[in-house]
Amino acid sequence: MDQLLLGHLLRIVLHSRGFGRLFVLLIFFFFLLSSQFVGAANFGKAFADGGDRKEINASLKGRDGKLLVRISPPVLTSENIQDASIMFRLYDANTNETIKFTSLFLSVLKDGKQLLAPDLFHSREGILRLKIQPSPGEPVIYANKEPHLDAWEADQAGVINLRAPILLEGGLYQIHVEVFGIDSPLNIFEQDSIPKFDVYLSVGDIHSQAVQYNHKDYNMTVISYYDEVTDLSLDQGKKELAWRMPFNYNITRIKNEPDIFIHEEVRIPRNFTELADGMRFAGSVDGMELGASSLAVDPYSSGSELIVHFLINKAQIIQLVEQSPQINNKQGTMKFSLSPDADIVETSTRLFTDTGSVIVSLDWNPDQLAAGKDIELGLKFYDQFTGNPVADDVKYDLMILDQNGSQVTMRENIIAKGGNDTETLVFPENAEYHLEIYVKEIQDPAAGSGAPDSSRAGRAIGVVVVPELGTSLAMILAAASIAGVIALMRSFVQSSSTMNRNKW
Asked: Cβ(9)–Cβ(25) under 8 Å?
């Protein structure tokens, strides 16, 4: 990229006149000299492994900035392919004001193949949106050139249209970004201080396939928000659905990524009663059983399908690699399985949002839940990728539905001050309830009137069981059950001994 920068500056020199040419010529020689000493020392940082948007901290000549990169649509269909785009917004982290005259070197890769060669793009208004017409072949950019930078210039709405082999399919896209300049077309960063980022964003892949059970076909759908789905199959004996997805298990790569999140969505048709009638499922990833927080069952969003979400974070993937050393350094696939589970369901105490940005910790008081009584629900919000508590205010909605999908509680725009909140709830009867928490935005109170961060919005799904026995009572009952079993075994042994004596 450094050679590209030098070449681009040389083109600017040749097209510039007067003082502007002298100014850029000086910059060109500075770049040329500094490249001899700096070389390739300033590597770009990698940000995110999955998700359709990422927000990155950026140091901009002493200013605290942020770069938002968002790829659309989050899931590709034949209906929304015309809305394909990649949006970039560079803004002041303290005031939330978009930084104008933003110049970005951009390139796009997928599976190691370059889809858009590095090129310079400029937006006077600061927001840049590459509106993409997905098409095989060489990219074609439909825009005018900015006269000072020889960069592709966005229109007044910040849009540049292009035809390129981008977003022809779902999967993981690598977007390389270098902030070339800000505030003015001639305000260019020195080579060794150019902010560089590699952002990995996912576009959901929809895989629909008929599977056979008892000589009848059922159309199953798996949506992967990370990469493409392959090898979807059903083991009729186990009633186990399985599929694969490309994934690089190199442990060094995984640990170096600041955030990795896998989200798979399974849609089971309602008429497949052997699977869809249940509310409890067992799921695994390459043999590792997933806990309740990583399997979210949604019975109400669709009238024709039961939806099950797999939510797997970076810590779980590292744990999987450490437990199974044979998959380390494996450039291959991740295997998923889903089957009905007869285990007793428990009230949720930890939830992951479907975008992988936030963990919600739930504390129920009293822990022995009962119908018709006040129950205090304590909520604490954590950053999914660091594990640290969210220190800012969190705006969220809370919804509870009964087993018929009827609304029991709906509270909107609740503010969890400093990432903590307590809500008082009443459950009308003994039953199993569906709980949803929708994180809408996160606001730093010190930011004043600056716009809140909505890039971490997401929905978390859980379950509430009333009555819930509670930890202490459950332990007492478990101990009593064990004691009963021991007494029964002793009785059986004594009885068997008496019978043997009588027999001999």
From this structure: no
- Same topology between domain 44-203 and domain 344-468: yes
The total of other beta-carbon atoms located within 10 Å of residue 500's CB is 9
DSSP string, 280-344: -EEEEETTEEP-GGGEEEESSS-SSEEEEEEEEEHHHHHHHHHH-GGGTT-EEEEEEEEEE--SP
Polymer length of the chain: 504
Evaluate whether 74 touches 226 at the Cβ level (below 8 Å): no
Which are the contacts of 194, defined by CB distance < 8 A and separation ≥ 6?
5, 42, 178, 179, 180
Write down the pLDDT at residue 57: 85
- The answer to whether 411 and 438 have CB atoms below 8 angstroms apart is no
Question: For position 366, what pLDDT does the model report?
Answer: 94
Q: Maximum Cα–Cα distance for the chain, whole Å?
A: 118
Q: Which residues contact 457 (CB under 8 A, 6 or more apart)?
A: 355, 357, 438, 439, 440, 441
Q: What is the pLDDT of residue 58?
A: 86
| Domain 44-203, CATH number (from 2.40.230, 2.60.40, 1.10.3470, 2.40.30) | 2.60.40
DSSP 8-class letter at 62 = T
Task: Identify whether 366 is preceded by a cis peptide bond (ω within 30 of 0).
Answer: yes
Residues 51, 202: contact at Cβ < 8 Å? yes
Residue type, 232: L
**Paired tokens of 291:** 């806990």
- Residues of the chain where predicted confidence (pLDDT) is lower than 70: 1-50, 78, 258, 328-331, 343-344, 446-451, 468-504
pTM of the model: 0.70
d(CA 354, CA 348): 16
Both structure tokens of 133: 């017409």
Nearest to 156 by CA among 121, 179, 128: 128
- Report the Cα–Cα distance between both ends of the chain, in Å, rounded: 92
Tokens of 344: 């007793």
Question: How many C-beta atoms surround the C-beta of residue 133 within 10 A?
Answer: 15
| CA geometry: angle 8, 200, 124, nearest 5 deg | 45
**Distance between CA atoms of residues 261 and 385, nearest Å:** 9
Matching residue, tokens 């005018």: 144
Name the residue ranges covered by the structural domains of the chain: 44-203, 213-341, 344-468, 478-504
Please report where in the chains the tokens 């059970």 appear, as a residue. Answer: 213
Distance of alpha carbon 463 from alpha carbon 350, whole angstroms? 10
For domain 344-468, which CATH number applies: 2.30.38.10, 2.60.34.10, 3.10.20.880, 2.60.40.1930? 2.60.40.1930
pLDDT of the residue at 113: 94
Planar angle of CA 84, 85, 89, nearest 5 degrees:
160
Give the whole-angstrom CA distance, residue 208 versus residue 453.
35
